[in-house]
Amino acid sequence: MMNGMEKSDSVIVAVKSANKGTSVPAEPMEPRTEPKGNSGSQSTRRAQHRESVSQAADRIRRFVQREPRERLTALLHHVTVDALRWAFFELKKNAAAGADGMTWRMYEEGLEGRLADLHNRVHSGAYRATPSRRVNIPKPDGGTRPLGVAAIEDKIVQKAVAEIILTPIYEAEFLGFSYGFRPGRGAHDALDALSVGIMRRKINWVVDCDIRAFFDNVSRSWLVRFLEHRIADKRVIRLIIKWLNAGVMEAGEWKDNLRGTPQGSVVSPILANVYLHYVLDLWFQKKWRSHEVKGDTVIVRYADDFVVGFQHKRDAERFLNAAKERLGNFELEISPDKTRLIEFGRYATARRRERGQGRPETFDFLGFTHYCAEARGGRFQLGRKPVAKRMSRTLKRLKEALRRRMHHKVEETAKWLGKVVNGWLNYYAVPTSFRYLRRFVDRLARLWHKTVRRRSQKDRFQWASLAKLKGRHWPKPEIRHPWPDQRFAVSAVMGATQGRSRMP
Q1: What per-residue confidence (pLDDT) applies to 459?
Q2: In Å, what is the CA distance from 420 to each residue of 92, 395, 440?
Q3: Residue 360, SS3?
Q4: pLDDT band per the 50, 70, 90 thresholds, residue 7
Q5: Mean pLDDT confidence for 334-347
Q6: Which whole number is the average pLDDT over 6-33?
Q7: How far apart are CA 94 and CA 192, in angstroms?
Q8: Which helix (H) or strand (E) covers residue 134, if one does?
Q9: In sequence order, what are the beta bridge partners of 307?
Q10: What is the CA 354 to chain-centroid distance, rounded?
């Protein structure tokens, strides 16, 4: 029975008839109180646990899969107080404060009242996005990367909208060769897919592409139009427009160039993927792969970096020219300094040798230099090693850190360096990279030994003592990742990722 003017857990329920008729019952039954909350409701718990808000995301995901062409008209009601609470506890507690100066710990005081007020403002339209605090991060090439540190309330609302609304919708839309900033996918999944594609397909030419200043040049009008393909809830669209137009605070001055997404914000990754999904992914899948390419082809995209392999050089050249025009139509530009067309693959070494040329060129992707190698028996093998510039840059930073820790206890420094080496191995310890791992560890040990010996003119710290500390606190260099075809096959069978086919 429905009581429209009262709350849903009222005591008005269907009543069973008494045992002596219905006109004047002698023993009427007492009505029973319904359970608190409706079964299958959006939030069944008030604790800051993901399961208490995941039912809304599951319903959205099921609807999108069931109705792939329908637009979703009612979404913002899924952003409840429970969803905001969960989003708050999902944020990093030590993250820097935004332009308002509010930290996570400060916002936690009186949390329930703050969340209730934030919820009311979001649903009434009174919520206003705060300008992000601009922070310039040094880049390896000498430039800077501008990042925006959002206010704590903006982070909370963006986290709730991104995880509960946007991700369920677009995870069913994104194609299998898109790997950046997606749940259940990471950099090594993209590397495995690229390796398997080059090894198994007839790939002779590789286009290594990079989009210049992608996050700064995204067209906001085009992004909103792309979002409206699936989202018809104007309240959600207005929320996203508020974040896009909030601007940044730099040196006490508000700035906004009317382009780009708030790089560094919680919602920025999913918005970037939506933009490139319509600009690049669908265009390549439906036009180039289906109609324009004469031979074999593979593509792997991670955020704004993507690598495309072709069987024929003519296809690669035509694609590169078409990609420049396609991205230009949406106010993006391919970086000429970081984009190359190279001969690569199982026949590249022999063909270049016949022409009297040197070894095949290499390309960098996600921190690894990919090169043509030979396995046992002369078979083609895709080799991967850490990018040399990245290794040198890391050692340079470690050298500066060791100088600052020069007079610390050597035991403490050994433990700290052991964590550094462990993190390096966790990412770079892939097959074909063992000797480069040893090289990194040896160079780091020499830097440490040299730094300790410089503590004083009389310091006699011996290499044997350093070797004992290394053996006690440093992990041994060893391969930690399986071969790409093994892990790629396992994750494809288990369905570890969402979206379309994982084959590149």
Answers
A1: 66
A2: 22, 11, 11
A3: coil
A4: very low
A5: 93
A6: 41
A7: 33
A8: strand 132-138
A9: 208, 300
A10: 43
| Assigned token pair, 389 | 């510039």
Q: Are the CB atoms for 53 and 162 separated by under 8 Å?
A: no
What b/e sequence results for 116-155 when a residue is b if at least 16 CB atoms lie within 10 Å of its CB, and e otherwise?
eebbeebeeeebebbbbbbeeeeeeeeeeebbbbbbbbbb
Residue 103 tokens, joined: 């930290």
Q: Which amino acid is at 97?
A: A
**Residues 392, 143, 423, 198: is their CA dihedral positive or negative?**
negative
Mean pLDDT across 306-317: 95
State the amino acid at position 368 in one-letter form.
Answer: F
* Residue-wise DSSP of 235-281: HHHHHHHHHHTS-EEETTEEE--S-S--TTSSSHHHHHHHHHIIIII
Closest by Cα among 180, 188, 366 to 273: 180
**Tokens 């219905």 belong to residue:** 22
3-class DSSP state of 316: helix
Q: Are strands 205-210 and 340-343 parallel, antiparallel or unpaired?
A: antiparallel
Specify the pTM: 0.84
Packing angle, helices 484-494 and 187-200, rounded to 10: 110
- Name the pairing type of β-strands 248-250 and 132-138: parallel
Token duo for residue 328:
């230009």
- Residue 416's contacts (CB-CB under 8 Å, 6 or more residues apart) are 405
Q: Output DSSP code: residue 329.
A: H
Dihedral angle, C-alpha 43, 47, 49, 52, nearest 10 °? -10
Q: Mind listing the pLDDT tens digit for each residue in 374-433? A: 988 889 999 999 999 999 999 999 999 999 998 899 999 999 999 999 999 999 999 999
Pairing of strands 144-149, 253-255: unpaired
Q: In 405-462, which ranges are continuous DSSP H helix? A: 410-428, 434-453
Distance CA 235, CA 183 (A): 25
DSSP label at residue 92: -
